[in-house]
Structure formats: structure tokens, C-alpha cells
Amino acid sequence: xxxxxxxxILIFILFMGCQSVSSxxxxxxxxxxxxxxxxxxxxxCDRYEADNPNIQINLTYRETExxxxxxxxxxxxxxxxxxxxGPSDQVGPFSTMGIIQPLDNLFDADYFDKFVNNAIIKSDxxxxxxxxxxxxxxxxxxNKELLNSPPVNTDELIDIGKRLxxxxxxxxxxxxxxxxxxxxxxxxxxxxxAGFGEWLITxxxxxxxxxxxxxxxxxxxxxxxxxxxxxxxxxxxxTANALFKTGSAAMIINGDWSWGDYKxxxxxxxxxxxxxxxxxxxxxxxxxxxxxxxxxxxxxxxxDETIKLxxxxxxxxVQLYYTDKLNTQPSSKAALLDPLVTENELLRxxxxxxxxxxxxxxVPEMRAIWxxxxxxxxxxxxxxxxxxxxxxxxxxxxxxxxEEMNLIIQPTYQATIIKILAxxxxxxxxxxxxxxxxxxxxxxxxxxxxxxxxIPSVFGIFAVVIFPFFYNIFISxxxxxxxxxxxxxxxxxxxxxxxxxxxxxxxxFIKTVVWTSVNLIFHVTLGVFLALLINRxxxxxxxxxxxxxxxxxxPQYISALTWRGMFNQExxxxxxxxxxxxxxxxxxxxxxxxxxxxxxIMTNIWLGFPFMMVIALGGxxxxxxxxxxxxRVDGANSWQQFVKITLPMxxxxxxxxxxxxxxxxxxxxxxxWLVSNAGExxxxxxxxxxxxxxxxxxxxxxxxxxAMSMLxxxxxxxxxxxxxxxTDATGSNVY
Length: 735
Prior knowledge:
Blueprint: H1 2-21, E1 25-31, H2 35-51, E2 55-61, H3 64-76, E3 83-87, H4 91-97, H5 109-112, E4 120-123, E5 126-135, E6 138-143, H6 154-163, E7 177-180, H7 186-195, H8 212-226, H9 237-245, E8 249-255, H10 259-262, E9 268-271, E10 286-294, H11 300-313, H12 316-326, E11 329-330, H13 333-336, H14 339-342, H15 345-355, E12 358-359, H16 365-381, H17 387-406, H18 413-432, H19 434-446, H20 448-476, H21 494-501, H22 503-534, H23 541-553, H24 556-566, H25 573-582, H26 593-621, H27 625-633, H28 638-666, H29 669-675, H30 688-698, H31 702-726
Parallel strand pairs: 1-2, 1-3, 7-8, 10-12
Antiparallel strand pairs: 3-10, 4-5, 5-10, 5-11, 6-8, 6-9
């Protein structure tokens, strides 16, 4: 009893201490700014904290897609940051979901009048975002040291591109390109679609992809790479950015957000994306704003302080600070008249580019349009489909996905049955568990202190395992989607039926089985082999062991992105080595489905074998040496010793490791998502878990995704039980 009292007092004191330390009100901002922009935001927030000592501002950087998905999840759970900063196209989904607040009644009308029209983002008659930066649009940037003036039309673009694409060392691989950009992404392709005479969405928010303009656009981009050879064969955003920053590219198509990244490194100018000669039209970049939205869960004093913070972050002073440091175009009418803006050459040229731009659509349907366009566009670039077929398929897929996205499933008789059966099942579980509860209370009376000590872990397990599991079951039986984000209800087994009726599910399942099997075979084989190797007496053994553990020790995020760079068709070290030692032509690791899937497997093999090696090494070191000595006396050779002693003695430690490895590999979204850039090319590298992520956070089909995740759980549970039974993992014969 004295111990319990002492601990209670100690916890009280610690709690009071925490209260005093955290007396400041913390406001959180999630954003997706580039590095230089992050530094500027941190600087203005530090200034605000100095003027408001009672406020602490936490800034969290997330990639654009990660920002969207994490905010959706946290807001749904009643938490998340007070402020979210990002492009205006996130307003449509967030407002439809009801996870951001309308701002009309939080700010005076006079406040909104301070901004230009396109900085105030409206949807369904309400204001949802206040932008501090206008533009966020693509343009042509050119290196003034390599090019005196930019091309005006596509003919000039091709001519200049050919002239400035140079193989300096004669190895058959260009060392300098005339033009680079992230040409595989639809956002970077969209301006060209307008240049060829059409737009990707109609005025009534319908997809407009099956057009001659889209067909011609596909052909044009492919010709720049394959016919005119002024583009790298594979070029994502990071590659293009690196080539331009190092002077290895004369021109790049990028956004105004990149100016701060190039400042002081490249002497660059900006211009419109060259006019399309065939149509006489300017490519139209999407023009939007970046700004702040307030979490729907923010209230009370946090809301009051958040409003004050937004007013500060969108003030003329802060906007002009960004203009000075980052060359951003402010959204404030007064700030636009400041000499920092009017005398800024970049901003004057940027304003001319905006004149031919088109407003960024903010409707949720754009997600489906982007997704449908992306898969077929990449298929064209990979040579796997004709532009004509790609245009038809992208239109068809976009319409299908929009229909699924906006579908509101009505409850059926199945929902009523579930509501009746759920409490009955719960009561049955409680009835059959009464013996265990009785034993628990008896033991509790005898060992109170021990049970008090495990209470936090019990609550933790309930919070992060048990509750989410059963919550996910209910979501899988609901109509939880974009349109019912905050008012979903049970509807029955519709989502499970939809999964089984979808042919793509079976194809992705087969790929997942192949992915898991191949990885596990190599993980176990390499792991055991290397464990046997380093278990022997050998020189520099600690160094070798440390080096072999490095793949496991490094953050998976860094490792996956490093491998992605190594798989680049032109600059990746893998192709360079294959060419040097085997005289092999470059392999299209990231632009062809089979090769990209193979690249993901190779990366995961490298990441996974150290785990098996460590487990196997521990098992080997526990085997008594006397057994090997007795075997040698009996005349057993090395292979016989391995089969009769090593393998049976490794079985108790390797079987659990194989089960864990299977589960880890089956659900390893990180490698697939990062190496293949979210399923590229054309969504051909998805495994089940990445397909679930796409369904949930890209297409807002949460009930469907939850049903698929439950099927993944059942698949892995079945595998684990069958595998343990077949291997006698829990029986007496395991030893």
C-alpha cells in the first residue's frame, strides 16, 4: 500500500510538472513547402512566438499526398493540426468531407476584401481557404548561361533542344539535355493538352479526355523523347531538378515554387511554355493559390488563437517577406503595389504567364481524372498502348471512378441483421469468457500492484490494436466514402461483394503472392547463408557483420529512394554497371511494368535479408558444438551435419521469423510506393496494401478499402495458422 501511495504522489508531481512545462498554447501547422519556403515559414513563426510568448507553433512537413491522407485520417478521428497549408485543389475534397471549417463567419468581410479574388477559395457558396501566395503554376525556366532567350513556339523548342542536347564525352549518353521536366506526371502534361485545343475537365465537372487534342498531346510528348531525343528517357521531378541545378539541362518546365531552390545556384529566366505551332495556342498551366484552411476540430481558445495566427501569416508584412526571400507573388492587393513586387522582373514575367493559365479545378472529381489520365498517359510513354486507345480508356476509367467516388450506398436488410447480431455476438463472447474474467478478478485481489503496472499497456493495446480493428470492421460494412465522410452508416456486405466482383482484385492478389514468395525465398536463403558464413571463425568478422546489417539499420524511406535513383535508365548506377561489365543496353527499370516490379523486389530483398540473417545467426549460436563433434566422429560430412543438425535446430527460430517476414513483406507498402512512385508505371506495380491505400486516400472509397484490408487480414491469418500447423511450429516435434 505504501508503494502505491508513493507512486500516486510521484505521478501527481510529474503531471503537475508537465502542466507547467506545457503552459503555452500549442498551434500546429501541417504543410508541404519546399526547403527554402520551410525556412521562411519558420522565421515568421519565430517572430510571432516572440511577440506572443503564450503561443508555440509546431511546423510539420509532409509530402503533398501524405499531407492529404494523414490529415483525412486525423481529422476523422477528431484530431489533427489546427491549420493545414497547401494548394487550393485540396479544398474540394476537404470541404466535401466536412473536415475543414467555413471561414465566412470567422473573419470580418473587410478582411477578405484585402485579397485578390483568386486568393479566396470558395466552394458551395462558402469560403474554405485564404491564400497567401498566388500562382503555383508551371512555366519554362531557362539557364541564361546556356541560352540567351527562350523559345517562343514548339518548333523553336525542338530546334534549341536538339542543339543543346550534347554528348560531351562521346559515350553515347547525353551529358547535357536541352529540356527536362517531370513529363510522366499528368499535372505537368495538362498545359500541353490546352495548347492542343482542349481542357481535361468540362464546365460541369465531367472528364474530357477522349479528344483529338489528348491524342495529339500524347504523341507530341512521346516524340520529344523518342524522335527528337531532347528529353531524358526517364525523368521524375528530382532528376529534372538535379539536372537543371547542376547545369546539365538548358531548360526545365517547373513551377514558381522552385525559384527559391534555384536562387543563387542557377542564373535563370522564365517564360511561357512555348506556343503550339499546329494550333497557335499557348499551353495553359493551372493557376491556383496556396493557403491556409482551419481544421473542423479546432474550437475554443485554440480557434481564437488560430484566427489571429492566420491574420498574421497572411498579412502584408509576411507576404512581402516571402516575396523578398522567395520571389513569391503576394495575394494582398496592397502588397501587390509594393516596389518589391512591381520592380521584380520574375514576378512581372510570371504575371504574363498567368494570363494564359487556367484556374486549378478544386472539385473532388479531379482526383479520378488525374488518376485515369496518369495510368494511360504512362502506358503511352512506355509503348504499351496507342494514343487513341489511351484516350478512350482514360475517359472510360475516369467516368467509372467518378461514379464510384460519388456513390452513396443505401442501407439494406443486411444492415439490420448486423445491428442485431453484433451485440449478440458480444454477449456470447462475454458469456464464454466469464471463467477467464472470474480468474482475472481473483488474481487481481492477490496481485494488485502487478496489475496496476500493466494497466497502461492494456489501454495502449486497446487504443492502437483492438479498437481500430473493430472500427475497421464496421467501416467495411458501411457506406463510408467521400460523400458520407461524417455521416456514414452500416449498409451490409456491399463492399465485400464489390471487392470480389472486381477482376483487378484477383490480379493484384496474384502479384502480391508472387511479391511475397520471391522476397521470402531470397530473404531466408540469403539470411541463412550469410549467417552460416559469419558464424565461422574469420578475419574482420565484426566489420562484416556490421556491414551486412546496414540495410536493416538505415531508414527504409532513404533506402527506397536511393534504390529508385540507382534504377534510373540513363543515370542509375545499376545500368551503368551492367553496361560497363556486360555491355548490356540500358534497362527501362522504372517505365516498364515487369521491370519496375522487379526493381521493387530487388530493393525489398536488399532491405529484408539482414533480419533473417540476425535471427538465423542467433539460432546457430545456440546449437551445442558437441553435436557437430559427435556427428564428425560418426563420419557425417558437412552437408549431412547441415541437414541433420543445423536445419532441425534452426526450425524453432526460423518458423516464427518466416511468419513475421511474410506478414511484413505482404504489407510492405513503403518499398512499392517509393521505388515505383505510387504504382508506376500505369498502376502496374501495386500490391494489395498499396491498392488499398489508393482506394482510400486517392479515390475516397473508404468502405471498399476497409473491406479489402479485412480480407488481407484474413488471408494472413489463414496463412499463419496453416503454416504453423503444417510445420508443427507449436508442437513437440519442432525441436
